[in-house]
């Protein structure tokens, strides 16, 4: 269904799924693409597009019985045009809604998921901390102390997407009583919660990442995710969303490939389009090869998810591999476009910059490689 889908993987979708995907594509082309560069340049979020995005009815697809393959292609389509919008959606739909769906009680799911699916309430996910990174499990410093029917949260979080305007923020904190990590839904306006936008980013500038501070922040027991009793439960969420990041990477490099291909057909040097030069064709084919092999991997990943045999090492392999291939592909696209590849006007600059963030979040290549390495050798090599 796209120039970058060289092996027609989208044909694995049924008719209804293809119609949904087409709606997403039209929305991204007609409403996101015209404002994407301006929003990115000024680090502003297009709040006016949230009601239009809601009309697509794609938030919460995984929790309404949709196939993982459809969800993955929706992610691809968003990131193919604007990885910032793709990241915003991934935080809301995957991390925040996923936490509530998987770890919330029946009452919590009924209370929060319908308005989140309608995008009347926007979600965020607060796990990463200022001094933490790959050692997030052992290094979590945010604390939760129970006082009767209330939990009191203290600590700080960093790089929290959507946090400056989210209605519901899933916050992970260590219980002072038992030392276990638990999840809490902090609602907008809760005393002691502040979110300050991170400035001067060079990637995903449209995404409103924030530094979050929790100072004696009260959260009722009814807002504690009832199924989250340890970091193992947190990891189950990351297992699902890490696969989503692999789909994001495929979308980002697909957009870069299609941009480079179109440019090569129009840009003339020495009296003819540069698409007719052997070295340019070589770079285009390398880009397409990275897209194609990565798309094949995430399609199989979706099939494993739907079959219920999806494991940590599956998502880790996909995230590590696809983001590395993305980084190569956008670099080749920039090379094809020369100096024009570093300015927004020609469509490549955002892909080059945004790929750096996608490459890093949801586990670095090194950490994901160690997850796979442990699975294939039976030996952990993390320390």
Automatic annotation (TrEMBL):
GO molecular function: flavin adenine dinucleotide binding; glutaryl-CoA dehydrogenase activity
Boundaries of every Acyl-CoA dehydrogenase/oxidase N-terminal domain copy: 17-120
Residue ranges of the TM segments: none
Principal EC category: oxidoreductase
Domain Acyl-CoA oxidase/dehydrogenase middle: 124-217
Enzyme Commission number(s) of this protein: 1.3.8.6
Chain ranges of the Acyl-CoA dehydrogenase/oxidase C-terminal domain: 235-376
A Gene Ontology biological process term: fatty acid beta-oxidation
Keywords: FAD, Flavoprotein, Oxidoreductase
UniProt family annotation: Belongs to the acyl-CoA dehydrogenase family.
Protein known as: Glutaryl-CoA dehydrogenase
């Amino acid at each position: 269904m796209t120039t970058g889908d060289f092996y027609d993987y989208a044909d694995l979708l049924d008719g209804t799924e293809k119609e949904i995907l087409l709606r997403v594509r039209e929305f991204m082309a007609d409403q996101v693409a015209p404002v994407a560069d301006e929003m990115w340049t000024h680090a502003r979020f297009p709040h006016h597009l949230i009601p239009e995005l809601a009309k697509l009815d794609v938030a919460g697809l995984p929790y309404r019985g949709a196939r993982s393959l459809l969800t993955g292609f929706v992610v691809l389509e968003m990131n193919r045009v604007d990885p910032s919008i793709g990241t915003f959606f991934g935080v809301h739909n995957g991390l925040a809604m996923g936490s509530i769906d998987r770890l919330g009680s029946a009452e919590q799911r009924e209370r929060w998921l319908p308005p989140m699916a309608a995008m009347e309430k926007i979600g965020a996910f607060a796990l990463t901390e200022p001094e933490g990174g790959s050692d997030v499990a052992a290094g979590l410093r945010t604390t939760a102390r129970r006082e009767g029917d209330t939990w009191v949260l203290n600590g700080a979080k960093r790089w929290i997407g959507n946090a400056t305007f989210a209605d519901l923020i899933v916050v992970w904190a260590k219980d002072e009583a038992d030392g276990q990590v638990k999840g809490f839904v902090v609602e907008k306006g809760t005393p002691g919660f502040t979110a300050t936008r991170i400035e001067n980013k060079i990637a995903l500038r449209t995404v409103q990442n924030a530094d979050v501070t929790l100072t004696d922040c009260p959260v009722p027991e009814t807002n504690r995710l009832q199924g989250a009793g340890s970091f193992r439960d947190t990891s189950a969420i990351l297992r699902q969303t890490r696969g989503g990041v692999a789909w994001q990477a495929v979308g980002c490099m697909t957009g870069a490939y299609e941009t480079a291909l179109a440019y090569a057909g129009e840009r003339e040097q020495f009296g003819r389009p540069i698409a007719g030069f052997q070295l340019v064709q070589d770079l285009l084919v390398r880009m397409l090869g990275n897209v194609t092999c990565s798309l094949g991997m995430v399609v199989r990943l979706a099939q494993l998810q739907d079959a219920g045999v999806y494991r940590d090492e599956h998502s880790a392999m996909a995230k590590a591999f696809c983001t590395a291939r993305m980084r190569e592909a956008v670099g080749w696209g920039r090379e094809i476009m020369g100096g024009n590849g570093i300015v927004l006007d020609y469509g490549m600059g955002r892909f080059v910059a945004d790929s750096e963030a996608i490459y890093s979040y949801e586990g670095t290549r090194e950490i994901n490689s160690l997850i796979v390495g442990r699975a294939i050798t039976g030996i952990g090599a993390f320390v």
